[in-house]
Structures are given as C-alpha cells and as structure tokens.
C-alpha cells in the first residue's frame, strides 16, 4: 500500500502487452474501397480522395492531411478508424517491474459486448474488448502529454495518448497551432515512426521501450513543407490534400445537410446560393458552408416561429452574418 494503491484487474506484464499489440496491429489490416465508402457514408467524399486515402491506410504508418479550413479534414480523420472495422482487446493496465501503468481509458476506449462465440469461452479478463481507438488531440497537445503521468498519491502512472491509441488512430488536429514548437513535436515522433517503438521514462528514471502502433494523422491547414524538413517528410510517406468542393459536391452537401435538418427547399435555392454568394463574389467554397449557413437559417425559422423553409431572403441574411467576419469581399474571402 505504501508503494501503490492500485486496485483492479491484475496488470498485464509488458512483454504480453507487446505481443497483444503485435497480434492486433492496425498495420496488419487491409482496407478496401468498400470499407472506406462505408466509413465515410455520412460524408460527401470524392472517389479521387478515397483512392488517395486507401493506400495510405493500408500502409498504416501515417499521413499528412492538409488543405483549407472547413473542408472536413478532422471529420475524415475521425472516421478513418471505422474502415478497419474490427475490435481489439486492451488491457486495463500494464506492469513494468513494480510500476503499474493504467491504460484503459473510458473516455477513449469504447467497450463492446462479447460476440456469442467468445462469450462462451474462458477469456483473460485482464483485457477488455473495445472498438479500435481513435484519439484526437489539438492545440492543447504538449510534449508532457506524450510521457507517463505519475500519480504520486496513488503510486501509479497514466499511459500517454500514443499508448492509448495503439492498434487505432492518433489524430494530431490543427497541427502547427500547438503551444509547443512544431519542430520539437515532430522530432519527438521521429524514432517511434521509424522503429515502431517509443521510449518512455519510468518514475525511477529507467527508460523502457513500449510498442508504437497507431496510424498517426497530422491534420493541418498549413503546407507540410512549411512545418517540417525533408528528413521528417520522408517518414510520413503520404501527403493528402483535402480540396475545396466543386459546385457538384457543394450541391450534394447542401441537399444532404438540408435533408438532415428537416428543411423544405427547391433546387433553385442552391442555384441562387451559388450565383449570388460564390460566383458573383468569387468566394471560395468550403465543405462546411452549407451546414453553417443552413444552421443560421434554421435558427431564424425557430426564432420567428416559421416553418423550416429555405428562401433566398433567409440565405441572404445568413450569408451577411456568416461572412461578415471575412469582410464580405472577394479578396478577403479568397485569402
């Protein structure tokens, strides 16, 4: 009790944890086009983009997703794990020497019921059956969050995010916006990406090798070459641009979003939006614009106690308020 106040399932020795990660590695999964289309079924994604994402996911080593803000990079990254479509066993905790490290995190790891064929077996209850994890971190990410967090009162450690993301996906969102310098953050990943192992320091000062097995995705609206040097770009073989939608994609997104919100509208409304708020103003389209504009229209209808109908007048009012922060001019919008 003086050394550790841990109470719970017996922790798994590190060598057994390493073997469990190896046997369930996301790199062993082969993704097909049908898997991607199912994973992104609630999004409008072009076949061109799917053809670029697929090989990157099969490799399982990581990718940059870049492009203008508002085009769905985060939404894509969050859904990528779905394409792998399998569950994994994750230990409640692991032990290294006398140090217990808590790994299962109910915020990250989603437990699933045991299939009938497994429920009848005598399973190792030190492990929990979960969906493949997806860990998303943004501007709050620091170098300290990538290390073991020692709780002196409990005498245990909390696993860092990359350990919790093993056998799943780790998304570094808004990369380049973190408080830590991008070069420092990237240097921290060089060895794990190259060797597929990470070295963490225990409270007693020992450095121990842990498996590094997430598919790591750097999502940014900055150009990758502006953030990293050639040595690091070489370790992230796939750089995938998420482009602005064209008019056809914009129409599909508008129809899908309007339908999900319960709107009544005619196709001429979309023609009106495209002509008056994009072609005439030379404003660049973003995938988020239909959702954001229609949400404002919905709020107008609810406030005025009117039916959910999209009219040109309502769109004009929503666009005036939504695009006001960008100056409403073509030059500022394009910038």
The poorly predicted ranges are 327-335
Discrete helix count: 14
C-alpha end-to-end distance: 60 Å
Topology, number of strands:
14
CATH structural architecture of the largest domain: 3-Layer(aba) Sandwich
Structural class: alpha/beta
Molecular shape: elongated
Helix content: 25-40%
Quickly count the domains: 2
Strand content: 15-25%
Q: What is the class of the largest domain in the CATH system? A: Alpha Beta
Q: How big is the Rg? A: 23 Å
How much is the average pLDDT?
86
Instruction: State the CATH superfamily name of the largest domain.
Output: P-loop containing nucleotide triphosphate hydrolases
Spatial strand arrangement across the major sheet: 1-4-5-9-8
What do you see in this structure?
With 335 residues, this protein is of the alpha/beta class. It has two domains: 12-241, 3-Layer(aba) Sandwich (Rossmann fold); 247-334. It has helices at 14-23, 33-39, 47-59, 73-79, 116-119, 161-164, 182-195, 224-227, 230-235, 247-261, 267-279, 289-304, 312-322, 330-334; strands at residues 12-13, 63-66, 87-91, 93-96, 99-102, 127-131, 134-137, 149-151, 156-158, 169-172, 197-201, 207-211, 215-220, 238-241. Strands 1-4-5-9-8 form a five-stranded mixed β-sheet. A five-stranded parallel β-sheet has the order 7-10-13-2-14. It has a two-stranded antiparallel ribbon with strand order 3-6. Helix 10 (247-261) runs parallel beside helix 12 (289-304) and helix 11 (267-279) runs parallel beside helix 13 (312-322). The longest helix has 16 residues, at 289-304. The protein is elongated. The chain starts with 11 loop residues before the first strand and ends with a helix.
